């Protein structure tokens, strides 16, 4: 039984898409890359396990969970969307919490706030208000590198994971997307495409996605600092 199971939450599963190839990082299957001696995947599983009834992970074909990672594995697909779709078919939980393996630092506050929001609305995602100035580029002698027009940042949020949904609603959205050939970068996008309302819950700067070598260096420094009690 999950620690937070309130009305409308029921049995809860954490679904972790971890089947990516990590092309931008360039270190092989990214979920298995270690930060301060512990893989990104092991960190994400450990951060979620206390709050859910089960943890399921989508892995690249031919790879298995490392010893000590307490989860059930399925084989992922060619896209993140496809991997989540397979995970949804592999659980019967009422509520699913989807979290990228590539976001290894997950504050408890965010998990609890998401489960509470999803119990009210059926769909919620972590997100942060955009803090930087945004500019669109213009074509010209340096295509894509010339300052074009300012994009007002008011009301814009950068979407993170975790994202929490009623499993039946998310499965229906995935099934429709597959049927109609629609793709979105994440699950909240699929629910919104179906006309669903997605609550934005304040995420955390610590929830950055390890995408590039610079992100990995940052994660390494952060993990060493935190784990040294800094
Ligand atoms: N076919 C895929 C692609 C991605 N993911 C997962 O989705 C999350 C977010 O993806 P991203 O960070 O973009 O990972 P990669 O696809 O591995 O990165 P890249 O695009 O650089 O190859 C990751 O935990 C990744 O493992 C997945 O399960 N199945
Ligand atoms: C799911 C996600 O992490 C939410 O921000 C993001 O959409 C994944 O994007 P990517 O294109 O796979 O990096």
UniProtKB/TrEMBL annotation:
Annotated EC: 2.7.7.60
SUPFAM superfamilies reported in the protein's UniProt record: Nucleotide-diphospho-sugar transferases (SSF53448)
Name of one Pfam family that matches: IspD
GO molecular function, one term: 2-C-methyl-D-erythritol 4-phosphate cytidylyltransferase activity
Pathway assigned to this chain's UniProt record: Isoprenoid biosynthesis; isopentenyl diphosphate biosynthesis via DXP pathway; isopentenyl diphosphate from 1-deoxy-D-xylulose 5-phosphate: step 2/6
UniProt entry keywords in alphabetical sequence: Isoprene biosynthesis, Nucleotidyltransferase, Transferase
Residues the UniProt record annotates as site (Transition state stabilizer): 24, 30
Residues marked Positions MEP for the nucleophilic attack (site): 153, 209
Catalytic reactions on record: 2-C-methyl-D-erythritol 4-phosphate + CTP + H(+) = 4-CDP-2-C-methyl-D-erythritol + diphosphate
InterPro entries recorded: IspD (IPR001228), IspD/TarI (IPR034683), IspD/TarI_cytidylyltransf_bact (IPR050088), ISPD_synthase_CS (IPR018294), Nucleotide-diphossugar_trans (IPR029044)
Role noted for this protein: Catalyzes the formation of 4-diphosphocytidyl-2-C-methyl-D-erythritol from CTP and 2-C-methyl-D-erythritol 4-phosphate (MEP).
NCBIfam families reported in the protein's UniProt record: ispD (TIGR00453)
Family from the record: Belongs to the IspD/TarI cytidylyltransferase family. IspD subfamily.
Matching HAMAP family: IspD (MF_00108)
The protein, known as: 2-C-methyl-D-erythritol 4-phosphate cytidylyltransferase
Organism for this UniProt entry: Deinococcus taklimakanensis
High-level lineage: Bacteria, Thermotogati, Deinococcota, Deinococci, Deinococcales
């Amino acid at each position: 039984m999950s620690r937070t199971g309130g009305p409308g939450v029921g049995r809860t599963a954490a679904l972790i898409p971890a089947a990516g190839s990590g092309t931008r990082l360039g270190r092989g299957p990214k979920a298995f890359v270690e930060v301060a001696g512990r893989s990104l995947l092991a960190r994400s599983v450990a951060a979620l396990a206390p709050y859910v009834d089960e943890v399921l992970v989508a892995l690249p074909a031919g790879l298995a969970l490392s010893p000590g990672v307490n989860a059930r594995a399925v084989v992922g697909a060619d896209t993140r969307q496809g991997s989540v779709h397979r995970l949804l078919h592999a659980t019967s939980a009422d509520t699913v919490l989807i979290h990228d393996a590539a976001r290894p630092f997950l504050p408890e506050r965010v998990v609890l706030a998401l489960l509470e929001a999803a119990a009210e609305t059926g769909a919620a995602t972590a997100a942060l208000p955009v803090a930087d100035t945004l500019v669109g580029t213009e074509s010209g002698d340096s295509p894509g590198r010339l300052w074009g027009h300012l994009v007002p940042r008011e009301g814009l949020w950068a979407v993170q994971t975790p994202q929490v949904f009623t499993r039946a609603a998310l499965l229906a959205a995935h099934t429709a997307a597959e049927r109609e050939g629609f793709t979105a970068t994440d699950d909240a996008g699929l629910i919104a495409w179906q006309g669903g309302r997605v609550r934005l819950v304040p995420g955390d700067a610590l929830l950055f996605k390890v995408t590039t070598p610079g992100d990995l260096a940052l994660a390494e420094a952060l993990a060493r600092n935190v784990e040294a009690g800094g």
